[in-house]
Amino acid sequence: MNDAKKxxxxxxxxxxxxxxxxxxxxxxxxxxxxxxxxxxxxxxRVSPVNYDALQVGDVIVFENGGRLVAHRLLxxxxxxxxxxxxxxxxxxxxGNNRLSDVYGLVVGQFRHQRxxxxxxxxxxxxxxAFLSPLVGYLNFYLGLxxxxxxxxx
Length: 153
Known about the structure:
By secondary structure, the chain is an alpha+beta fold. 30% of the residues lie in helices and 31% in strands. Strands 1, 2, 3, 4, 5, 6, 7 and 8 form an eight-stranded antiparallel β-sheet that branches. The model has no long low-confidence stretch (mean pLDDT 90). The chain crosses the membrane at residues 21-39, 128-146.
C-alpha cells in the first residue's frame, strides 16, 4: 500500500474513532458531490450520529464503497436499518445502505471562515431532499464547469 492510501486509511480510522468517542470534528471538503451547496474548500462540522434523530434532508457522513462520503439523506427506515442518500451534485442516488455505516451528521458549514447558517435550516434540508433527485444532472454538469473555470485557487 502506498503512502497516500495509508494516510487516507489512517485519517478515516482517526475520524471514526473521534466520532465514536463523542467528539465534533471540523474538516475541509474536497469533492464536488454536494455542489453547489457545499464546495471544495468549505469546512463542515461533523457530530456523532444519533440514528433516532436523523431526518430526511440531513447531510450524513457514511462509508460507501470503502470510502467516507457526505451526502444528503433522502429516505430512512431506522427499524429496518437502511437509508438512501445522494450527493446534490450527482446524477444518481447511492442506493440502499446500512445505517450501521453512518458515522456522523453534518451540523455546520463554513466558507471563508464564516458560518453558512441557511444550509442547516429544516426548510432548506427538506427542500433539498425533494429537489436533489430532480436537479442532480444539472448540478453535476454545472459542477464540472465551476471546477474548470471558477474554483478557488
